[in-house]
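Long-time lurker. I teach an intro course on protein structure, and each term I like to show students one example going from raw sequence to a predicted 3D structure in token notation. This year I'd like something fresh instead of my usual example. Would anyone be willing to generate the tokens for the chain below so I can use it in lecture? Attribution to the forum is fine with me.
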Amino acid sequence: MITDFLNNVADNKYFYLNGTSIKNLQELHSVLEKIGSAAFQIYVNNEKNDFYNWIYLSVGDKKLARQIKNLTQKENFTKRLNQRLVFLKRVGLGKESEFTKVTLPFYAEKIELALDREKCVSCEICKEICPHEAIDITKNKKIIDSKKCSLCGLCVPFCPVDAIKLYINGKEQTLLDKTIPKLPDKIRIRDFEIKKMFLGNINVSGKCPDNCEECISACPLNLIIRKKEGIKINEEDCVLCGACKMSCPENIIEIKRNVLTHKSKEFSAAWIRVIEKLLGVQKKNLDLSQRSRKKIEALMLSSDLKSYLDKNDKIKKEH
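-- Reply from a regular --
Happy to contribute to a lecture. Here you go:
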């Protein structure tokens, strides 16, 4: 249970700050609110982040550890820690869940889409490809509109961290075996497993506010650091997921995805729509002739996915 992160650590794993022994995340937050920035910099600076090591190794909260790893401002660190505490407490009280679910009972089957909020990195991929614009991100929280979602499952294979699953009668399934090509498997980058599906580039087009570290905290791979001249992104390891872009309050992070990599050649017209959404008008990367496109569109009309969506739409209209 993620609420275990609220518990005290073992006696031999206490964190000692200014003579105070810290046993849990709440106590860390309370102490941080009392100390100044100079005292904070003793533990967090360009050379080290002692709080990251304690949260990762002693508390075991890897998600929080990742979010605060490259933060240098005490205010931003305390803010992120408080957000985590609020979420964990609400889960413990039953006011929030680790999962966001959309369920649709058919006549003989129950189909459910589940988003694991612990795994989710609040990137923009599922939001971009959703054919019904059912996914949105507000304050780093991903929301699925159950009235718009058709449970087509298109978001499932595109999630870079496999945080979205589709279940039919409680069993994990996929409806898109022949609709889209097989996408790359997850690889390990900086101790984090993620899919690297895109080739392209990322750019900061404006001036970053002096004390803002939102994108630094949002990057699941900790590829962004702050320099005197602004933020610096490690483009070589960047997977172009867009988590930083979604978190930026100034909207100055630009991502251009030029190529979507895949392992097989079986796909339908749904794949073309995905490409158009993720890569814009750069259809040259599809390597498809006009003849093959027409053939794909014809196959789509008789595919299982088309029948599924038609049946789903009919049920929704009846209700």
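Some talking points for your students: DSSP finds twelve helices and 14 strands in the chain. Residues 74-92 form the longest helix (19 residues).
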